[in-house]
Amino acid sequence: MRIMPEQGKAVVRAQEDAGIPVRRAPWGTISREDIVQAAVEIVRAGGYEEMTIRSLAAELGVAPMSLYRHIRDKDDLLAEVVDRLLAPAWRPSAAEDDWQAWLIEAAAKLRHFLVTQPAALHVYLSHPVVSPAAVERMTTMLDVLRRTSADEATAQRAYGALHTYTIGFAALEASRAGWAPDGKEDASRLAQQLAAYTTTEQFIAGLRYLLEGIPGRRRSARPQIRR
User: Who's near 42: CB < 8 A, 6+ residues apart?
Assistant: First the structure.
């Protein structure tokens, strides 16, 4: 794989815009692995928003259409990129026998991952994520939840509550990352109080509320929906 320096990529873009033929890598010399790895490096460096199929092709020294031989579209590529970034990031250091500490750390790690990686938050908000790392995380969480003496249905509902709470919290937190008080004292005080609802401390507090309701729950304890 040939990674072009920033100056080289700028030259390629200028040549393309001017209609000047650009020297490309030989046909068939890149693979899906090359494309995914280049995208991982860009996303890791914080370039997710600026990354396009065209810019990635320039990075690899190939025509944009060459990438479509290996990937369906940008979303297909991002799904694999996010999976690779998630794989080493999700596993807690707490012992699985300490189920509350383990689940809190597992949720906190996913929240941090989503808040610090915009590409990951985009993927998780776009569709259910069933990539290898995400499925491994889910399976392990379900195993830990079963250790609370919860039956299968309760474990799955508990996982769903923890998972959706974590993603929703991360989405709200990320969307407010650039917020600042407007200077009006009374309104600012209230706004700051409300802003505290998206802090790490509030996230952990909310997790504890959820986890306290898990032990002792049984299949018969289904929520009753009033019509």
Answer: 48, 51, 56, 59
What residues contact 39, with CB distance under 8 A and at least 6 apart? 51, 56, 77, 78, 81
The pLDDT value recorded for residue 183 is 63
The DSSP output letter for 197 is G
Per-residue model confidence (pLDDT) at position 193: 80
Is a pLDDT exceeding 80 seen at residue 22? no
User: Distance between CA 205 and CA 80 in Å, rounded?
Assistant: 32
Backbone angles phi, psi at 138, to 5 degrees: -60, -45
Q: Rounded to 5, what percent of the chain is helix, strand, coil?
A: 65, 0, 35
> Is the CB of residue 84 less than 8 Å from the CB of residue 36?
yes
Q: Round to the nearest angstrom and report the end-to-end CA distance of the chain.
A: 60
The C-alpha atoms of residue 206 and residue 103 are separated, in whole angstroms, by 13
Instruction: Provide the greatest CA pair distance for the chain.
Output: 70
Q: Which residue, chain included where needed, has tokens 């909310």?
A: 206
Dig out the tokens for 70 from the structure. Answer: 């290996």
Q: Decide if 167 contacts 125 (C-beta within 8 A).
A: yes
> Rounded to an integer, what distance in angstroms lies between the CA atom of residue 121 and that of residue 45?
16
Residue position matching structure tokens 């952990």:
204
